[in-house]
Amino acid sequence: IVDPGGHPADEDRRFEAALRPRRLADFPGQPRVRDQLGLLLEAARRRGAPPDHVLLSGPPGLGKTSLAMIIAAELEQPIRITSGPAIQHAGDLAAVLSSLAEGEVLFLDEIHRMARPAEEMLYLAMEDFRVDIIVGKGPGATAIPLELPAFTVVGATTRAGLLPAPLRDRFGFTGHLDFYATADLAQILTRNATLLGVESTPQGIDEMAGRSRGTPRIANRLLRRVRDYAQVQGNGIVDLSAARAALRLFDVDDRGLDRLDRAVLDALCRRFGGGPVGLSTLAVAVGEEADTVETVAEPYLVREGYLVRTPRGRAASPMAWAHLGLTPPTPSAA
Ligand code: ADP
Fold this sequence. Notes:
Layout: H1 10-19, H2 31-47, E1 54-57, H3 64-75, E2 79-83, H4 90-98, E3 105-109, H5 116-128, E4 130-135, E5 142-147, E6 152-157, H6 165-169, E7 173-176, H7 182-196, H8 202-210, H9 216-232, H10 240-249, H11 259-271, H12 279-286, H13 290-303, E8 307-310, E9 313-316, H14 318-323
Parallel strand pairs: 1-6, 1-7, 2-3, 3-6
Antiparallel strand pairs: 4-5, 8-9
């Protein structure tokens, strides 16, 4: 709630390490991706060979990292974790690749942010389990091929559309993660409340689940804030009144929209007459990076029908106007 960027804060990280589901069977929600992955992993197990490379795409906080860890656990293989922004040179990637063990899972988070030369090295490594190490510079440079043991890349991206086609094609399977149903979030929250040793009521759980933007990471954050509230101001029980009061305090509205969501809708309606307006103009108006608006706020606003993407830019739907308590301009006036 505090960080509208959707990136895990330190508190998230500590908490997430403790609460991450470890097995596919313990992973609620995403039934399609779970079934698809289950099949892929079982087939690999029976063949006794590493599965195809896996690409997971979807908004932040939906479980891409968790699924990567589950894949490694199900395969009973170690996992190496790195991310696109950490790989700025082909040499960074060569160092990682050349130290992988047979069957190991390599998790590449934010894979769309990897530097281009590293990307090219990755294609070859994924396809042929080989890298060419360039020795020397200029006309005298030579490529020394290095054989790699078979491994599995699990790539995660919030922007599958940004991956160059040759890289996308190297993944035998792509799982698209979608926002979670409220019932799945309620299941996750109930389990996590128990793990945290906090007493909760079904009404309190449902209130948080319905206001978590379909996102487990946000659900977990709300749970911690409601727990704080219950322990400091209430009777220690995560119930409906604690949930309502804490969510009001932390600026989560009754539809689960947070400060950034509302700032986007507010700018769209009040400053740009409902749009359409270009993404970068909209981002400047709310004081955020265009990428944050596009990957963090927008997917949920679009999915819930508040915001519409048009060829000429972003536009507010009648629901957005209604949510802000504003009257849209009449079409005849335009
Ligand atoms: P991403 O990599 O997509 O940003 P993570 O895998 O880091 O998301 O998940 C964020 C948090 O949400 C973690 O605490 C994780 O335990 C929790 N989480 C995500 N998906 C689930 C799920 N299906 N069930 C339980 N917890 C989940």
